[in-house]
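Lecture notes, unit on protein representations.

Consider one protein chain, 409 amino acids long.
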Amino acid sequence: MLQKDVDFAVYRKQNPTKDGYFGTYGGAFVPPQLAAEFDKISQAYQTICQSSKFISELRRIRKEFQGRPTPTYHCERLSNALGNVQIYLKREDLNHTGAHKLNHCMGEGLLAKYLGKKKLIAETGAGQHGVALATAAAFFGLGCDIYMGEVDIAKQAPNVARMRLLGARVVPVSHGLKTLKEAVDAAFEAYLQEYDDAIYCIGSVLGPHPFPLMVRDFQMVVGIEARAQFLEMTGNLPDAVVACVGGGSNAAGILTPFLDDPVALYGVEPLGRGPEKGDHAASLTYGTEGVMHGFRSIMLQDENGEPDPVYSIASGLDYPSVGPEHAYLRDLGRVAYHTISDSEAVDAFFRLSRLEGIIPALESAHAVAYAMKLAGEMGSGSILVNCSGRGDKDIDFVLEHYGDRLGEK
């Protein structure tokens, strides 16, 4: 239940604290040699986020390079098929590079230039963060190394090609499960060796402070636009806002501007094949508090505090923890977190494609699937869904594994 003493009108000014905490979550658990570097990044961000020159340049980039604002779209045919509830999509799939990730990557690239860095380092799962960061590096004339698990490289070949075409070096990660968690490990180890000349551009609202703060702030453009667009289109606010949650950047981006509104907010985690260990990546649903990759949050872990193996059909969601602010908002009761299985996400993938001509990323399909389920429970009203990315990257995988569904109506 929502704590009555939380004033969400001032929430963002109070969270995180100066030390990077959202309640008990967050912080910066980094090696001593990196502590001073992260402090520099924090101080630089606190300076430039108040700079009219920086803000003006970022707005110019968003308008002229990214193609913002992205539209909010009424899914009339899907809504009619579901009943009386009206479904709307915030079309981040139309953002340049095909997902929301470029929103914070361009901000991080601009920050890197301010700090005099020469290279951007990052991890990627589905490849969208990697493509976005490679794009930012090309735009700003910086080097770029992207670490990616071999399993994800095989699943996301189109995005791997795009990263290389943009001039990035894609570094395969072959240890462990060879997916997103291992890619983060490898990228962080590389950053330890190059922090004087490089900046580690974390791909979500996680990692050591100040990255959960920075990425949230850069991604809030999604919710700010969507809120204004929805009001203009309907004269009202939506009854509910829904977004998928892996690390949680797209969800933080669209949900945060609605925190002080009388709107139900939902985050959707990947249930994968089911609730058994290793079959899902639903950290908030099944996890416990712990420290990983330099921050404290809710994570899937064993009795020794080591990350559990995780899985999702959506490569961008298979991470064993979640951004610290999501853990805090769950504890406050302001955002409700639910799960969607692989099969439900695939159903939504096909249904949105066929009814609206929009092929969503498998990550986004989780949010669409939950909105479809929620519509059945609500009976009437409106739901705004963050379509955080397009499904081009997933088409080969879906056709290989679900090609028998192509003949369905």
